[in-house]
Amino acid sequence: xxxxxxxxxxxxxxxxxxxxxxxxxxxxxxxxxxxxxxxxxxxxxxxxxxxxxxxxxxxxxxxxxxxxxxxxxxxxxxxxxxxxxxxxxxxxxxxxxxxxxxxxxxxxxxxxxxxxxxxxxxxxxxxxxxxxxxxxxxxxxxxxxxxxxxxxxxxxxxxxxxxxxxxxxxxxxxxxxxxxxxxxxxxxxxxxxxxxxxxxxxxxxxxxxxxxxxxxxxxxxxxxxxxxxxxxxxxxxxxxxxxxxxxxxxxxxxxxxxxxxxxxxxxxxxxxxxxxxxxxxxxxxxxxxxxxxxxxxxxxxxxxxxxxxxxxxxxxxxxxxxxxxxxxxxxxxxxxxx
Length: 338
What we know:
By secondary structure, the chain is α+β, with helices and mostly antiparallel strands. It has helices at residues 46-62, 129-132, 136-142, 174-181, 185-207, 251-257, 261-275, 281-287, 298-318, 331-337; strands spanning 3-8, 12-17, 22-27, 70-73, 79-82, 90-94, 97-101, 111-112, 115-122, 153-163, 171-172, 212-222, 228-231, 239-243, 246-247. The strands form three sheets. Strands 8, 9, 10, 11, 12, 13, 14 and 15 form an eight-stranded antiparallel β-sheet that branches. It has a five-stranded antiparallel β-sheet with strand order 1-2-3-5-4, with helices on one face.
């Protein structure tokens, strides 16, 4: 069947399958952090690993009667999924402030919900939550104390919302998020409940591997009858995983690059863009601050490569399938040496 490239991002390509309402997600070995886009390195076998892990989680959640857009993992190791509409927001700048306008209404269906839904079991190192809950009103909405500490686990799953379709994510209050997605009160309650259920199920899966799930992000769509449907994909790029304090997700890469001059420049560039909405922060970082990300040292690149392949093998074996990557170490040996 003919397939047509309709989107090429920093991590994956999306293909339209003929005239069917079906898409192919082709994951690459590229990676992106801090909203930068494609980084200068490729991570061997990352794309293949993400495809297998995404299929595993969709099948597992589907077995628990959680609706998803997943159809199958193809022979070419691509995810075939059901297509939904995406309505991109328009932006305007008035009085020195950029504002985004969404086309969603209570009648919108068969469409991506324009939110990233973030679930949190605690506040590990690198969590941005501690900055936001200094606002006591926001902390109260989330149901957490403004005095929570770094490394603290919560009594319940905490759910936050950020924008999905803007160049840079921004966090929203519950009322802002519900309004942006045009969800009625019953649909909003279902979104919160479904997120809770999925988060708990993912936590159980990783507990079987002696890995702690601290937080993650999900994406949803509404089908033609406005039923919730889990979309996009699930893997270590969307979650924060720890083993004895060691980062087992893309957070490992974030922590490595946070020590670089490039990250310091990103922070300065984003602050400049907040003051002047006409500034493109990435361009400012390159042209004005003369900073771009450097390639990973070979040792770090090998570690992150092993992370994706080991996680894939272990998850597949949990599901009763054979491992797909050959390894010299056992999983326990890998965890202890990572």
